[in-house]
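Hello Y.,

Per our agreement to keep a running log of every chain we model this quarter, I'm adding this entry. I've kept the format consistent with earlier entries: sequence first, then predicted structure.
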Amino acid sequence: MKKNILIIDDDKKLDNLLKEYFRKYGFQVAIAVDPQSGMKAIRTTNPDLIILDIMLPEKDGFEVCKEIRKEYSIPIIMLTARGDVTDRIVGLEIGADDYLAKPFEPRELLARIQSVLRRSSKTEKKEIFKCRGLSADLKRQTITVDGKLREITTTEFKVLALLIKHPGRVFSRDTLIDSLRGIEWEAYNRSVDVLISRLRQKLDDHPKHPRFIRTIHGTGYTFIGVEEDE
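Predicted structure for the entry above:
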């Protein structure tokens, strides 16, 4: 089955070049040249991956990435004409899966697309995630820590599952709040800290010497557990 790629970039020349290039490798490609049409295209084309430029009209790619992450977990690769490392850090912190500076070779972007899609496919197929000292059953919503079954609430499990599925990605408090839409709980920044604190207690995870969840001060949280091979 062909994978669908959505390119959100106002550089029409680059868009058409990439479209023809990716088609040669079996991808279906849709193009949007501004944020508004990009959000519409997500709903109409159901892409497997999004290539998102930072420099867009109306609003920048960072804001668009945040909007996408409020509703979708689609893999995102961000592009920028600026080689600033800060852009890369910000992009990854708000939910991008990879980052590539312009100019670039199309084959490099292709390699990154294939890598991100492989990781995404592996994650989607898994029902049980195992890290050293931790096992999480996504279907049953249960966890074991050092071989012992632990009680966990739906809210706690949803946050843990989000972190586990994206190891190394830093999730802001706002992003975690957005991920819990539809669950009745008191949503404000401090409540996320309390939720993480409860979760750490159940994971026997000390914030100063974490095995699983690390605090990125001023930003949010990231999962650092070491995954075990099947």
